[in-house]
Amino acid sequence: MAVGQNQRNRKNDSMLTKTGKARLGPLNVAQLTKLLESSTKPKLKAKIQRALSKAGPVTASIAA
């Protein structure tokens, strides 16, 4: 959410919360790992690590 906007001007985005923070629940493991590599804030990294641990074990696809 941009600074200075109110709820009337805010566009609905299902991937963001009301305050503009990203929702990590609907992201898959690949998206979460990419986000983890690009993030710099320790608090956000910890949040992504928790989301990855909740996502379950990583299943590697076998390429033949």
Features:
single chain, 2 helices, 0% strand, 64 residues, mainly alpha
Protein described:
The protein is 38% helix and 0% strand. The protein has 64 residues and is an all-alpha fold. The longest helix is centred in the C-terminal third of the chain and has 14 residues, at 42-55. The chain starts with 28 loop residues before the first helix and ends in a 9-residue tail after the last helix. The mean pLDDT is 78.
Write the H/E string, N to C: HH
Poorly predicted runs: none
Beta-strand content estimate: under 5%
Helix content: 25-40%
How would a textbook summarize the main sheet?
A: none
State the total count of DSSP E strands. Answer: 0
What's a quick, concise take on this entry?
By secondary structure, this protein is mainly alpha-helical. The protein has helices at residues 29-38, 42-55.
